[in-house]
Amino acid sequence: MEKAYRLTIEGQVQGIGFRPYIYRLAQKYFIKGYVLNSKKGVIVEIQGKEKNVDKFLAHLHKNPPALSYIISFKIKQIPCKNFSNFEIKKSQDIEKGFIFPPADISICPDCLKEIFDKTSRRYLYPFTNCTQCGPRFSIVQKLPYDRQNTTMSKFKMCPVCEKEYNLVLDRRYHAQPNCCPVCGPQVQMYTLPEGAICQGKEALCSAIKLLEKGEIVAIKGIGGFHICCDATNKKAVSLLRRWKRGSNKPFAVMVKDIKTAENIVYLTNPDKKILSGIENPILIVPKKNNRFLSKEIAPENNYLGIMLAYTGLHHILLSKRVKIIIATSGNIKEEPIITDNIESIKKLNTLTKYFLIHNRDIYQREDDTVISKTLYGYLMIRRSRGYVPFPFQTSGAMNKILAAGSDLKNTFALSDKKGIFLSQYIGDLENKETFEFYKNTIRHFIQFLEIKPEVIACDLHPQYFSTQYAQTFSKEEKVSLVKIQHHHAHLVSCMADNNLKNEPVIGVCFDGTGYTADGTIWGGEFLIGNYDYFERKGSFLQFVIPGGETAIKQVWKTGISLLYNTFGENIPDVPFIHNINSKDINTTIRIIEKNINSPVSSSAGRIFDGISAILGIKKDISFEGEAAIFLQMRSEKASEKLKYEMELTENKGLLVLDYRAMIKKIIKDIKNKKQIEDIGLGFHLALAKGIKNVVEQIRNQTGIKKVCFSGGVFQNNLLVKCIIKEFRISTFTLYFHKNFPANDGGISLGQIIIANNIKDIY
């Protein structure tokens, strides 16, 4: 007796060889019917003997395709039909529904082997791919994921490629970016002032020779341009560092393989698994002392961001003498990563006259994903290539919402009934080009995912570009606007990241800036709350930020403010004071006293800045978080544990963590010539102990024992280590971010969940 069923499979099931897998499975179990892609997902109709159909379904449930992620598997029995065989049908748009767009996937072993096989027609062809690897999100213009809907549509397949594409049992069956040297994209070496000088293998050889000579080359990849040079060539690295206009922001490096990586960083087996996964992120791990690597790659940093070559192009470039290259984002300052050939030549020509470009258009730019190794596991620092646009699944249904995110390290988010889609890393919206990228990407996501928002959520800060965008969007699209407090969004983001239910938790939210209705700047907050509400239970003792925004770069001003808050006018004579113009110091003190452009703050991020300045580590910074990072790096080298205390007081029901006694002791130890590293570690330990003291008081008041840590400050591995050790003997359960950034890159996740829980706006 025969049975027939219709299967509707939703999730990440397109662009990963799902249909050929179903076809082969049907052949194995003598099944008739068809499989096709649709906007509903993958549709399968199967018919055969009952025992064969049962085996087919059991196999598919137990062993789905390797790259698939199934979230819905619906089976409906249907009448038997006159199927004569099993076939793969053309994609259909007739069924409105939902599919997961695929992320970009690093090159697979089979394609890599082909590239270096001299007998292969794809020998040294950098765009080699199959259904198990290659560009996806970066080239897709609309769904479903078919070639005509990608930037590969302009490349007509040659007869051999077309045969592969249509041969069901070939691994390139319906591999949408399928191509070869005859019919596909080509690399080209473009130099100034000559112009295009060669292409194909000759261009690759030219780029390899330039890297070997110590030249800087702009190289177009999957999601944008990298600026590359030999990481062992100190002269080239120094030139690149100078071009970055004095920024000490660490460069990432790309290596040929794990063996090469182990020469420069310490790796565990889990680290190797992360590095060599299909996403191939940058992984920040402890670095080894390497004389042959330039110190300017990551100045005064104990860690190195490292990634493996993830495209055929990268593997070819690293196949000769140069095994380690700097591969930093190709952009100007905080502008978005460059994707266009002409724009790269126009904007990067002050750095290099060598451009390895290609003619496969990048439709969606995306930076490399960055992950940091921590004591508790791995922390997503920047979520982008390889992870986007894969959605976050919630336990309950989501409404159609757009969350605008924050202004720094922006991501936005879109949701509907099937989940939450966070965008790739956008960047800092104060930059004009980044803001345009932000607006364009929102438009693309709305069209791409076919989600028309009914609500838009944003931050409370009225001056945020994201808030202003949300207000305009709300008016133009006639949708409800929801404004959400910054640290509540942080708290909920961490809860969601850990799949917590909608239950009260304690939130420790430490960052640089968070706007509140009373005009003060939060940033060192202890909250209780859930997806529906929050209440502020504790905070750092407030201080002023003299000069407002200027103090973010000139962190010595925050140092002066902390000293003034501790000692009054009698600021102690410590070494860092001598490196600042006395007139500037006096002006800063007057600004504080007269409250001129000096917002009140409880920011933990600014406290890190101030302590870094007081210890003489950093008085000015070239990128966000630099003072805190350098403080952490120095503190990790401590040889003695100095003990400091933060006093816990109460003011009008608010627990206040008072740092002044600690600062007095720090000043005393500076004058007694204690090691800066030891003082820095003492500060971290005191902060961890202070956090525990506040959390214990909140637990005593509320009975809550779950604690969520969110905000950019908790990217500090040393602080997290101190916290975990401080809480090791306690009844608390600690939750840190894992899959989404603790920094403002995770804000949109919190915003969208909070907005979804406001019942009266739907």
Can you describe this structure?
The protein is of the alpha/beta class and about 750 residues long. Among the domains are: about 1-90, 2-Layer Sandwich (Alpha-Beta Plaits); about 390-500 and about 745-760, Nucleotidyltransferase, domain 5 (2-Layer Sandwich), CATH 3.30.420; about 510-530 and about 535-735, Nucleotidyltransferase, domain 5 (2-Layer Sandwich). The chain is built from 22 helices and 30 strands. Strands 7-6-14-8-9-13-10-12-11-15-16 form an eleven-stranded mixed beta sheet, sandwiched between helices. A seven-stranded mixed beta sheet has the order 27-28-24-23-22-29-30, with helices on both faces. Helix 13 (about 485-495) crosses helix 22 (about 745-755) and helix 15 (about 555-565) crosses helix 19. The radius of gyration is 28 Å and the shape is globular. The mean pLDDT is about 95.
